[in-house]
Write a structure and sequence with these properties.
four-stranded antiparallel beta sheet, about 100 residues, 2 helices, alpha+beta
């Protein structure tokens, strides 16, 4: 009887979409930041590179260098540096 109840519990959890919380690591922090960095727009290609990641406690400080280049390769290029503080609960733009 207990096995049947456990099976029903597991099946109901899977059916309702119950998920295991994601482990918070350097890789997951970097992935979250890359999803938030804005695109260049205006027919420019966006190239984002993580240049530094530090762990000063429970979160990570992730620095991203963004290069915006014309799609045809001609014209001005722009470089922007973004720094984010990433914790398990939030992502905050520092500069």
């Amino acid at each position: 009887m207990k096995r049947l109840l456990w099976c029903l519990l597991i099946v109901s959890m899977v059916a309702t979409g119950c998920t295991v919380p994601e482990e918070f690591t350097r890789d997951t922090a970097e992935e979250k930041v890359l999803k938030l960095v804005p695109q260049c727009g205006n027919s420019l290609q966006t190239f984002n590179t993580i240049t530094d990641t530090q762990q000063p406690g429970t979160g990570y400080i992730v620095t991203v260098k963004q290069n915006c280049e014309p799609e045809n390769g001609e014209g001005p290029q722009m470089e922007t540096i973004y720094t984010y503080l990433v914790t398990p609960d939030e992502i905050k733009l520092l500069k």
